[in-house]
Write a structure and sequence with these properties.
mainly alpha, 0% strand, single chain, 100 residues
Length: 100
């Protein structure tokens, strides 16, 4: 059962927006024949975040689950990382590189 807005600790609207944007750029990478590069770039970013912050901190970010195409566990507490580690900014980079 989906949590109510009062029970969520992340911004569902932000999550939904970036989920849709990631889905579009994923399809664009596939259609352009650049899927291997796309997947490698995502894997590299995920590995960098895990090395810097650790598994628990990475799994606590809602937008990481967009990037990793993984299911969020209960109690995801934050939307994203700040600054150069922002997953939203990384998805925007992917849009610029592979198409919107």
């Amino acid at each position: 059962m989906e949590k109510t807005p009062e029970q969520r600790s992340y911004n569902k609207e932000l999550f939904d927006e970036y989920y849709k944007r990631f889905d579009i750029v994923f399809k664009k990478a596939f259609e352009s024949g650049k899927m291997t590069d796309f997947i490698n770039e995502i894997g590299k970013k995920g590995a960098e975040l895990r090395a810097k912050y650790g598994h628990k901190e990475v799994e606590d970010r809602a937008l990481f689950h967009v990037l990793a195409s993984s299911t969020m566990g209960e109690g995801v507490g934050r939307d994203d990382f700040e600054g150069e580690d922002s997953i939203a900014s990384f998805i925007e980079h992917l849009e610029e590189k592979y198409g919107k």
